[in-house]
Amino acid sequence: MATATAAGVPTRKDSRLKADRLGRRPVNRTFYLMLVPALVLFTLAITVPAIMGISLSFTDSVGFGEFRFIGVTNYIAMFSDPAILSSYTFTIGFALVTVLAVNVVAFLLAVLLTSKIRGKVALRAIFVLPMVISGIIIAYVFGFLFSNSLPQLGQAIGFEPLASSLLANEDLAWLTIVFVTAWQAIPSALLIYIAGILSIPGEVYEAAAMDGASAARQLFSITLPLVAGYVIINLVIGFKNHLNAYDIIVGLTNGGPGTATRSVAMTIFSGFTGGDYAYQMANATMFFLIAVLLAVLQLRLTRGKGQF
Amino acid sequence: MTQQTLVTTTPGQVSTRRRRRLIGKGGEEHPNWPGTITLLICSIAVFLPLYATVTMAFKTTAQSVSGQVFSLPSPFSVEGFVEAWRLTNFPRGFAISVFVTLVTVVGTVILAALAAYAIARNWDRRFFRGAFFYLLAAMFLPFPVLALSQVKLTGIVGLANPVGVALLHVMFQLSFSVLLFTAFIRGLPEELEESARLEGATTWVVFRRIVFPMMAPMSATVAIFAFLASWNDFMMPSLIIADSTLQTLPVLQSVFQTQFSSNYNVAFASYLMAMAPAIIVYAFTQRWVMSGVTQGAIK
Asked: Which chain A positions have a beta carbon within 8 Å of B168's beta carbon?
């Protein structure tokens, strides 16, 4: 096997010269030294916690002291726990709405930003800017606008739903989270769409224009189908990211009013305090399985990356 | 896009026409004015919260509580900054944020570059190929999934501090960075390395003198993503760092949500100081940021 040459051959001097059974050059030892630090640290920081978390999810641990194995009790309990179910409903619904909003806006902006506009470079730089700003801080800023400026505007124009803070509105608070998350997530989707649109050969449009296709017709019959691959990449990556929603929610509503905007991540973190450490480990494991499912989907879909 | 962004270093309206001729794109006789105007209007959505932050930050406390967010500061005041500096102990928070970010950036680039080089040049070996997919797996392991055990473990081994956060930041950046580096190294010609090796250079020397310098563009991309992820992170430091006097800048901002809640000018001055470094770095590195996103998604 690959590693046998390095590990099993007694005289290293010889092994460096001789090829193995498959006729391959032996691996230089330096390569192992380059790779092993990353692997060791990664195992300690990621793999060990992952295994520990999954194992503890089958126990009744409260985070310290003794615990015993209780099988899948935590998992069964989860399915009838309104707090957990509502956090999943909220998070999945929120992620779906956000990813759709982000992609519609990002796609339209990308179309405009790749057309013959003035100040193209500057405009692109402006629309990418939100990406580099800390989520929690921009959420605080928007939170202030939503709870002070927007109600003022609502009162001034006499529009009842806006006259009081959206953040305190149990039915509408989630919209503020969608808005701020979208504000921050649009840039990366936008850049991917720009790359997609620029990869379409110009001749396609020239031919269409010669056949008399309108700009709108070109958008829906050429641009959209030809960047379909990029749309799928953006939808899957975006949905996966939005499922982890945390920073912006903390900054805007902190899960409230009540528990109306509590995401799965926030529910998991409640395991630090509520004494249901192992229980939230089960929740995290469940969440992990969903992430894996989406990852498999992503790998399948992106294999044909942007190829129509 | 790459071509355009590579040609430009200072984007702006002034040099647009000359640049366009340079690139040789046709059609400047009929610029899309409706499109340009639509985009300018849309860009208000980007600027509005930033504008609000800046104007609020330079107001006096009295003016900031009046509720007129978008009015210009009069008188122009820096008392918000002075107070925010003192209240959040800005120098300490800044130093800790810089420390965490610096360790993350340097650690990510070095670890990922070394691992990716070993993997890319030994792709025919099962061990290296396996290591690649092993490292990649974390891309699908979001922090919330691991948080409960990581917080516990960092506490046990004495890493419930900025060092622990930096280490975890590196680990969460590793997957994406190894992916980018490996793809990049596979595109590099091997001849140069071969000839250096024939001259007697060791693998280590080949990497340091030849491969790593050639990887510079990708290192820049990897470094910027590590910088942004680390500098802006709230979730991980807020959970991992046990001692609140050792918190990073984004976490420190929560002080304004509870106490001093009516000193809006102080809060916004503090927000501005916390986000400014990222905006400044972005101003100088946009082309790497832009090309990085595309590579990350499509590679």
From this structure: 45
